[in-house]
Amino acid sequence: MFRFGLNGKRLLLILTDGLGMNLAVYAALLARFEGQVPEVFLRAYLEAAIPYTLASLVVYFLSGLYHRAWKYASLPEGLLLVRSTLAGSLILALLVLFPAGAGFPRSVLILGWIFTLMAVSASRLTGRALANILAREGRAAPSRRRTILVGAGDAGAMVARELAKHPEIPFQPVGFLDDDPAKKGMRVFGLPVLGTRQDLEAVILSQSAAEVIITMPSAPAGVIREILATCSHLQIKPKILPGVYELLNGAVTVNLIREVSLEDLLGRRPVEINLAEVSDHLRGERILVTGAGGSIGSELCRQVADFHPSCLLLLGHQENEIFEIQLELQAVHPDLECHAVIADIRDRSKIESVFRKLAPAVIFHAAAHKHVHLMEASPDEAVKTNVLGTRNVIAAATGAGARKVVLVSTDKAINPIGVMGLSKRVAELLIQQPRGAGVPGGEEEEEGDEATTFVAVRFGNVLGSRGSVVEVFRKQIARGGPITVTHPGMTRYFMTISEAVRLLIQASAFAEDGAIYALEMGSPINIMDLARNLIRLSGLNPERDIPIVFTGPRPGERLEEPSPTPVGSEPTRHPKIFKIRAPRVGPDRLAQAMDILEAGAAMEDGETLVRRMEELALEAEAGVEAKAKAEAAKPIGGRTLERERV
Questions:
Q1: Which partner for 189 in 160, 348, 507, 573 could form a disulfide, CB atoms 3.0-4.6 Å apart?
Q2: Contact 410, 424 (CB under 8 A)
Q3: Per the confidence metrics, is the pTM higher than 0.70?
Q4: Which CATH number fits domain 145-260: 3.40.1120.10, 3.40.50.2300, 3.10.20.30, 3.40.50.720?
Q5: Could you tell me whether strands 187-188 and 191-195 are parallel, antiparallel, or unpaired per DSSP bridges?
Q6: What integer pLDDT is reported at residue 634 of this predicted model?
C-alpha cells in the first residue's frame, strides 16, 4: 500500500517527469524529421500530450517510482524505470496510432521511449549526485590512508563502493589482491587487481600502503594468519570484514570493518543450536548456576537468561563477582526474577538448605578449581571443591527433587595425569553413579518419584576465560614482555566462551542420565604460535618487540592434550557434541573411596588423596586388572601411577 501524500521533493519529481517525457517525444520528432517536423504529426502529438502525460504519471506512481530511495538505487530500481517508461510509451502509441489517418511514425515512438527513459533516469541520478556532493561537503575529510583490499569478490567490491561513498572514513583503497590469477590486471569498481595474496608485501611497498583490509568473509584461519604475519613484519595492523554469518542480507558497510581478532585466527565459527529444544528445556524453569561469577558460569547465566526461565539463581562464594553478574542481568533482563545466593558448594548443610528452599529444576554446576599447577600444590583443596563439592550438589539436587544436574567438566579428565584432571574425573564418576551411590543422604528414591538426571559435559580451554593463557599473554604484552611459554611443542584445544556455553546448554537439553558428553574442539593450537599471533595482533613483532622465553612445563602439565572426542565416541543429534563411552566404578567401591577422600582432605593428606584418585581413575578405565596393576606398581615419588612428565 502506497501513501498518497505529496511532499515537496515528490511533487518536484512528478513535475520534472511530466516535462521530461514531453520534451523526449518532441526531441524524437526532431530527430526523425531532421528538425522539420510535419504539422500533421506535431498536431497529432499535441492532441495526445495531456492524456499521455497524466496516464503515464499515474502508471509511474502506481509502479512505485515515487516511493523509492534513489540515493540507494541499484539494478531493481533500474528495471523498474525501464518497465514504467515502456508502459507510458505504449499508452502514447495507443493515443496516436489508432486515430484514423494519423499515420504516426513508429520510429518516433521507439526513440521517444529511449529519450524518456534517459530523462526520467537523469532526474533521479542528478538528485543522487547532488545529495552525495552535499553530503561530502558537509563531512570532515580526514587524511585518508592508502589501503589494499585483499579479496576482489562481491564483498570486496561492496567495500570499495562503500569507501568511495564515505570519504570521512580514513581508508583510501588503491587496489585489490585476489587469489585468482585470472583477475590480475582487471579492474573491480574502478580499482586495479594488483596481484595475488602472495604479492602482498611487494604491493604494500610499491603502493606505499598503510592499511590492509581482508575483504573475504569466508577466509580460512590459515589465510588470515599468513596475512597477519606479513602485515606485522611491515608494522601494519590489518583490518577484516566479519564472516558471512555476521552479515545481514549480504549488506556490507564500512561500519563492519574491524581489527583482526584471535577468534579470526583460530577459525572458530558460531555454532547453531536447536533453539526450540533448548527453549522447551529451560523456558519457565527455575535454573541455578553454581560458580555463577566465573567466566563459564557468568556466560551460562547470560545465555540461559535469553530463554526466559521463571527464575535464575546465581550461586557463588565470591560476592563481588556475583554482584556484578546480577547487576548486568537485571539491566539486560529487567523482568527476569534473578536472585544472588552467596554460598560455598563445600558447605554441605548450606547447599542442601539452599536447594531445599529455592527448589531449582535445572542445575548447571560450573563451580570448580581449574588451575592445573595450583592444584598440584593443593590436592586437598581440589578434592574439597571439585570432588566433595560436586557430591554436595548431587545430594542437594536429589533431595530437592531437581530435574537435571549438568556438571561442567574438562578434557583434563581424559586419562588424567594431574590433580585437577583427577579431581574432575572423580566428579564425573559421581555423576555416573545411580542416585545415592557415594552420596550422603542420597538413598534410592521410592518408586514413582521423578528421577534426577545427572550428566557431565567436557570441553577444552576457553578463549578469554579468567586466568587463561590468552589473558596471561595479553597482560605480558601490555607490560612490554617477555611472554613466557612453557615449551615450544606444547599444544592445546581452544574454543570461545560463547560457543562452549551454547553447546553445553544444547547437550543439557537431550542428555541421558549418567552420560558424559564432549564438545568438538577442532584442531589443537600450538601455544608458541598463539603467543606470536597475539603479539602481531598488538601491532608488534615477535622477538624483536616482545621476547618469548621458555620456562619449562609446570607440575601436572603435558605437552599435548588427548582428543576431547576419542575413538569410539558416539555421535548425537548435534554434529559438535559426542557421547563418550566412559567406564564407571562400582557404587560400593566409590562410596568407600569417597570416605577416604573426605578424611584425607580434612587431614590435608595429599599423598593419600592423589593415590586414591589415581586408583579410581585406573579402575574406571580398565576395571579389576588395572586395579591389580596399580597396586603392584612400584611407587614413584610416593604415587602409584607414573605420570607423564615433559
A1: 160
A2: yes
A3: no
A4: 3.40.50.720
A5: antiparallel
A6: 40
